[in-house]
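Ticket #4471: structure output looks truncated?

Reporter: J.K.
Steps to reproduce: submitted the chain below (543 residues) through the standard prediction queue, then opened the result file.
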Amino acid sequence: MKKYIGLSIIALSMGLTSCNDWLDKLPDNRMELQTVDDVKGLLVSAYPDRHPAYLLEMYSDNTDECIGPDWSEADRFQRQAYHWEDITETGDDESPQMLWNSHYRAIASANAAIDFIEASGDQAKFSEQLGEALMCRAYAMFQLSTIFCNAYNPATAAQEKGLPYPTHPETVVGQVYERGTLEDLYSQIDEDIQKALPLLGSSYDKPKFHFTPDAGNAFAARFYLYKGDFDKAIQYASKALGATPAAKARDWDYYASLNANRQVRPEAYVNANEKTNMFLQTVYSEWGAVIYGGYQYGDQYAHSYRISYDEDICSIGPWGQASDRTLFKNSVWYNPVCADLFHGKIPYEFEYIDLQAGIGYAHSEFSVFNIETLLLERAEAYALSGELQLAVNDYNTLLSVYMRSPKKYTLTQLVTFYKNLAYYQPKEPTVKKRFEAPVYQIDEDGSDQESLLQAIIHMRRIMTVHEGFRMQDVKRYGIVIYRRQTDSDNVITGVTDTMTAKDPRRAIQLPQDVITAGLEGNDRVTVADKGEERFSDASYFFE
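Returned output as attached by the reporter:
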């Protein structure tokens, strides 16, 4: 079932090597810009055509290794991602190589548009396009940072590795770039966002696929949350959510009425007419096929029964057992012959270019910014800034649209439930995982703040399963990941590896050709360094 994507693999090394002829690939060398429509046309390519969800879900604690007679890996890429290896596969749509190429290719388009507008002498005429180009550049760089960098910590960002942030099209063959620091990277993203926001407009034929004011504010809210600037995160989230966010939420009753098989629900989830969707991204991706394409495809590494029932979409919460079909409007799909359980939200379509040979392009689409996710992001920002009741209000707003029989919870009820839960152990799992090394200042374990954050992060894990968000919470809160094996009876049979809060593998390794060309790679430990220092719980044996 392996798909062969018939696109040129651009070994993008940011001009670090002249053999890639990257100058020949630049958009401004393909088209002559003159009019507003010309720039609009160019900016279609300023949005990345790859998304990291598949890679990040394999990397995170949303995946177990499921051992069964009929369960096998999808391919080497899937295996390498699950085992946190430096990925050598380059042709898979969600490989580090493809993600790197796609995002820097989008940045090149944005830079071409920005340079043209700034040189035009009539920036007012192109103001909306300038705002879109700046926001596209910021978004692509932010996405790359969530893959290839550590989480932003104000105390250490000046010492952490960033990424090259090109601001102009290349004019010199062999131009050398440096990574700079994570602080530099975030400062540049911040600057682009602030320049872009007042310029954004909505004059698009298909606005849900562009950075409109709502999409821009939602992106700004996420960026400032990750940066630790909670006041700004709340400010921009509130602009996008409006006074009555529940009125803009997904029509969960309609969604629940749809057939759970195949593509019906996924297509509805990313429907551009759905009010909740503020920004949609169409991409090349096999992720939808791995989740629920063919039975048992890629099931060796899956969102397992044990994760589903012990930790997320079927787990227990203050509201009861999420697997109870009378509780939430979003039901869980499960077939006993498969290792994975899932929500229908990632569409999959295959475009054949040679029907007889069975080759072509795998396509998907993501709801990158929506009301439900933004509500939880604002709730988190409120909780981190000490406004616990406001965080509870947002939590309850989400439940008011997501529960079949909505309930409102008090701060005391949420705190009591999560405070009384035991912390997760790999063979005694719960929904509550310890914040070992958070990048934020958080009150002690069992405090009202910590317990409420557990509630918010638990709900986000349910709401955003399959979308790649979980790895960001793992990184930002210093959550330890254990690699477990389960069998066909859903018994946890082994713990084979761990990724501690300080493990350098949390920042995924840069593509090998980029490192070979001279850009510094991410830190790694040698095999000899692995062991007690990384795996502190001596009660578990590595088979």
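Triage note (M.O.): checked the attachment and the full token line is present. The two ends are 30 Å apart (CA to CA).
Status: closed, working as intended.
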